[in-house]
Amino acid sequence: MHLRPVDPARRADVRRFVTLPFALYRDCPQWVPPIRADAARALDHRRHPFYRHSEAAFFLVEENGEAVGRIAVADHRNYNRHHGTRTAFFWCFDAVDDAVVARLLFDAAAGWAAERGLDLLVGPKGPLLGDGIGLLVEGFEHRPALGVSYNHPYYAALVEGSGFERDTDFLTGRLLRHHHLPEAFFAAADEAGAARGYRAFAFSSRRQIREWLPRFTAVYNEAFRPTWEYTPLTEEEVRAAVERLLPVIEPDLIRLVMQGDDIVGFLIAYPDISAALQRTGGRLWPFGWATLLRERSRTRWANINGMGLLPAHQGTGANAVLYAALARSVGGVRFEGADVVQVDERNTAMVANLTAIGVPWHQRHRVYRRPI
Predict the structure, then answer these.
(1) Considering Cα of 243, then 249, then 250, then 256, what sign does the dihedral take?
(2) Residue 180: exposed, middle, or buried by beta-carbon count in 10 A (0-12, 13-18, 19+)?
(3) What are phi and psi of 171, to 5 degrees?
(4) Are 274 and 145 in contact (CB under 8 A)?
(5) CATH code 3.40.630.30 region(s) in the chain
(6) Burial class (CB in 10 A: 0-12, 13-18, 19+), 196
(7) Which helix (H) or strand (E) holds 321?
(8) How many Å apart are CA 351 and CA 348, to the nearest integer?
(9) Is the bond preceding residue 5 a cis peptide, omega within 30 degrees?
(10) CB 201 within 8 A of CB 195
């Protein structure tokens, strides 16, 4: 058994790194494969916008010629500059149920980070918007939403046995169409909106979404600035994340909260195509795209993977407008329900508000930390 760094310039190395989880989850009905081209692009220093400002490394553990573990580690300089920290993030951790393999991987990640003067290893947390966050620790019986990780139950023991402790948990819940909110809720939201000039806005085309990206990037950065996981995002990074989703997005599911001509909040939802990704094995060619697009039009489930309000508009009624838009976006179209994806449990106001409108939490992802 030996550990070695992955050379992102070697196709064979990239292929071995990307395909390892396909072997580990071959017989797991809940696991949703990533789009293989996107997974490979995360290692591409020329094409991935993360490498314009930061760096990462990738490692494999192999035994008898077979890959048995992998990990990625990043020095996210924009994050550290903003927070005044020296934190390294790990992600893409996958391994067989072997504590030795896990320790080799995490020690390699920690050693790489220490060489760069970093003093804390945190994760799982990928470098790009939409990468998903945390290790699944509850809700293994459920298929995850698009972009959210799934792992075997034994992963938590491997991580904790390698010296990590819990940092925070992210919760995923479900809003069902048959759960009818009282009319008084919508009336109060509409009244609050009218009193302060708030209104919900829905996009009408993918072209319009692209045109609004610079404004959305500014609002996203401002809305999440106070949170620990916030990373200042460049417009290129937001555009890369949106372009990954744009083919499967239905524009009218993405809602903004406006006050006059200003964006003060947003809700990002899209059809759940995870079943199609399972059928295609993460391949887009030659027929994968057609399968994904068919699933987009026929799925009865949606993912809500981004909600935010500018700090100055929190607690002013804009949140009621946002939650009413959420409920209407699910109940007003063909969907039977939606996953409300990965809300930080430390965001007690949002967790309480979503619980109050009938969202039960069914999955928990845990972020870990280990001093270096």
Answers:
(1) negative
(2) exposed
(3) -105, 140
(4) yes
(5) 2-169, 175-363
(6) middle
(7) helix 318-331
(8) 5
(9) no
(10) no
- Separation of alpha carbons 25 and 252, rounded Å: 34
Q: Can you give the pTM of this predicted structure?
A: 0.89
pLDDT in tens, 108-152: 999 999 999 999 999 999 887 667 799 999 999 999 988 889 999
| Distance of alpha carbon 334 from alpha carbon 300, whole angstroms | 6
* C-alpha to C-alpha distance for 69 and 163, rounded to whole angstroms: 18
Q: Do 215 and 260 form a contact (C-beta atoms < 8 A)?
A: no
The token pair that represents 341 in the structure block: 């994806």
User: Of 371, 340, 370, 346, which is closest to residue 358 (Cα–Cα)?
Assistant: 340
pLDDT tens digit sequence for 40-84: 988 999 889 999 999 999 999 999 989 999 999 999 999 999 999
Superfamily, domain 2-169: Gcn5-related N-acetyltransferase (GNAT) (3.40.630.30)
- Look-up of token digits 């790489």: 112
Secondary-structure class of domain 175-363 per CATH:
alpha beta
